Amino acid sequence: MQDKLNLMIPGPTPVPENVLSSMSKHPIGHRSSDFQEIVQKTTEQLKWLHQTTADVLTITGSGTAAMEAGIINTLSKGDRVICGNNGKFGERWVKVAKAYGLDVKTVEADWGQPLDPNQFKRILEEDTSETIKAVILTHSETSTGVINDLKTINNEVKSNSKAITIADCVTSLGASNIPMDEWGIDVIASGSQKGYMIPPGLSFVAMSKRAWEFNNQSNLPKFYLDLKQYLKTVNKNSNPFTPAINLYFALEASLKMMQKEGLSNIFTRHSRHQKAIQEGVKAMGLNLFTKEGFGSPAITAVQPKNIDAENIRKAIKNDFDILLAGGQDHLKGKIFRIGHLGFVNDRDIVSVISALESTLDKMGKLEVPIGEGIAKTISVLNNE
User: Fold this and answer.
1) DSSP labels for 253-267?
2) Cα 41 off chain centre by
3) Is the distance from CB of 148 to CB of 119 less than 8 angstroms?
4) What ranges do the domains of the chain cover?
5) pLDDT of residue 2
6) CATH of 263-383, one of 3.90.1150.10, 3.40.50.2000, 3.40.920.10, 3.40.630.30
7) If DSSP codes are grouped into helix, strand and coil, which group holds residue 146?
8) What is the pTM for the complete model shown?
9) Does the first or last residue of the chain, that is N or C, have fewer Cβ atoms within 10 Å of its Cβ?
């Protein structure tokens, strides 16, 4: 059946019907009072989502634009930084930092393993002259399904240095509790096609007071991503450039949905779905790729035995119209990833586990009696 594809990937994520409907309206002038009202409202909603009184700025661009903006608006050429690298997006941080001439020290972990906060602590303690300006890391490493301990790492930064913390929260914001002000995070980058439940095209940068102090000293080149321009205009409920107007309509609608559900309920839902997926997968005799206890509430990486993971993905897409994500780089064919982020409900969780179990049985690769996986998933959903 056509047009029935169900996205169970870490992004783009499913979009609610009312959010899609909001985008079908005719565009309005981006300098009009009507649009200014939307900017004012969404700015306050974004502060609510980030749990901050700090400035949250909206950029027409992907999550990578927000990541790059976080670097170039706070740092200067030659600055020493620490980049956490335990996956594809940790690698991206390193590449962006080096592209702008930063002096990069990496803290690394094998793909599937979390970053060790003690490694950050040791490097910061050894920097007795406090020349390290920033610690940069990915919170939810989408490529492997790992969630890094952002809170502890940020605490080490604050306790042992004068550096700022710049965090890629693209797949964790809206799925995990990230109280920006309480934790004292300086820069948070995120993107619209994840927990926000809207199509790709908008990204967001939240900047603390301290980050703005760093901004005053920053000499890296910037124009479109110059956040001073965004700050100046957001205070007038506007945008420095022509924004994606219809995506603002979607943003207003999705954030309204999120506020109605409530932050604690959103986090509980994602945690519940994560556990249901993980337990169902393990009950089928499959291995989780991520270290126990460090799985992301946004996505679960699965490492099948004695079968190409790409064949599983293809079969599930062909037979059930459910799209899963594959492994990246050296993990291609070795893992597949199940997204459970954003506009996902219990039916989606039951469907994807049922499809996976049926597919393995059809392939003759199911090592347990059929039904054990979905039974475990349903048990978790009914009792959590």
Assistant:
1) HHHHHHHHH-HHHHH
2) 23
3) no
4) 17-260, 263-383
5) 64
6) 3.90.1150.10
7) strand
8) 0.96
9) N
Query: Is-contact 35 245, C-beta < 8 A?
Result: yes
Average pLDDT, integer, range 53-75 = 97
Instruction: Tell me phi and psi for residue 64, to 5 degrees.
Output: -65, -30
What pLDDT, on a 0 to 100 scale, did the predictor assign at position 237? 95
- Distance between first and last Cα of the chain: 34
Look over the chain and give the mean of its residue pLDDT values, rounded to a whole number. 97
The one-letter code for the residue type at 243 is P
Residue 330: burial class (beta carbons within 10 Å; 0-12, 13-18, 19+): exposed
Q: How far is CA 376 from CA 341, 371, 379, in A?
A: 20, 9, 5
Sorted by sequence, the CB contacts under 8 Å of residue 32 that are 6+ apart come out as: none
User: How confident is the model at residue 4, as a pLDDT?
Assistant: 79
Q: Which two tokens stand for residue 167?
A: 């965090």
- When pLDDT is averaged across residues 273-283 and rounded to a whole number, the result is 98
| Sole residue written with tokens 């049922």 | 354
Q: Which of 107, 96, 108 is nearest to 132 (CA)?
A: 107
* Sheet strands (E) in the chain: 6-8, 55-60, 80-85, 103-108, 132-138, 140-141, 146-147, 164-168, 187-191, 202-207, 287-288, 299-303, 322-326, 336-339
Closest by CA position to 204, among listed 62, 54, 93, 40: 62
Helix (H) or strand (E) holding 141: strand 140-141
Q: Report in angstroms the alpha-carbon separations of 176 from 198, 253, 324.
A: 18, 20, 21
